[in-house]
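FIELD: query
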Amino acid sequence: MSVEKLESILNEKLDALKKKGALKGEEMVITGVKPPEDKKGPRYIIEGRGKQEFLRMNSNSYLGMSLRNEIIEAEEKAAKKYGAGPGAVRFISGTYQPHIELEKKLAEFHNRESAMIFSSAYATVMGTISPLIDDETIVISDELNHNCIINAVRLSRPALKKIYKHLDMTGLEDRIKDAIGKGKRVIVVTDGIFSMRGDYAPLDIIVKIAKKYDPQFKGGITTIVDDSHGMGSFGKTGRGTEEYTNAKGIDIIIGTLGKSLGVNGGYLATKFAITNYLRETAPFYIYSNPITPAEASSAIKALDILDSEQGKQLLENLRKLTKRFEKGLVDIGYEIIASEHPVVPLMVRDTKRTSDLVQYLTENGVLATGLNFPVVPKGDEEIRFQVSADHTEYDIDYVLGVLEKFKETI
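FIELD: result
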């Protein structure tokens, strides 16, 4: 096939995405970061926007770690010692001391026997779920689970795949009961925090249901939680949804280094037997370079900060700012999905109004994410705001002021 024919096919597909409203379009390019000053948190400079400064309300860096001097210095020091990249995959001399140290600290942080790092959280999910599924495995999944979970299950081709309605524990139990006699083992997989909504899975109940029916399956029931948005931003000490729900017995916790820890990469924490098996069988681990030794070193530093009194203070400040923002939105008259998590969805429930509001926010120096149909169901259109510990009360009040003025224009 000539490249011209391929171009024509791909352009048709892009046009179809545009007509559906699913085209993401040109990426916004950050060209500079202005450090906090006076009452303001960090501000960002965007290509093509002149000298206008932007407040990011759509960053996953929930604790502001990515801009902390200690984190940057740890990465620079390790880069000088080990070089800019690992130079190989893990089993071909690509494993460095910081990788081992980070895995040990992550295991201790989650009170697990072992941990294993991947190049990203997406790769962690893909690299964990697929090798654990065979043709006698039944997978049961929340309907709003992240794209990485959906694709991992598709790739794995389990004996059966069952979906339960979002957070419907009766539905989960019904699907487990229906699976009895149809496979040797079950994997129950869920997000911890659901990134579009900021709500969370009741992991304590999920564990109890799994334990109740575990004896009905020769290979038992394995519980897997992708808590990438919960790790470092949820729970009293930042240990995520497991800590917040006081769940005991989640088999595999998946997390990220690229959100609250502000660096890059993903990981899982579990039993030794599972990580030993995955190091031998997970293609996303075996055939991909790991994160750099420098990134691992900066992640270690970020984890040390999180797991300290300073970390508790950051988390407390994050909770206060989140509540201030939520209360302000409700007082203005907006609908939200309330949660202690710093993802704050403003439910607009109209496609055009959502797009108009995103544009208005941008014009006023606020970056937020609009989610329209067909990305979300019709009637669930929203603006997803994400609060960060490096925001200030001034920042929160500024955004609330912009949103209040928008109401006056309609």
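FIELD: remark
The chain has two domains: 20-56+312-408, 69-306.
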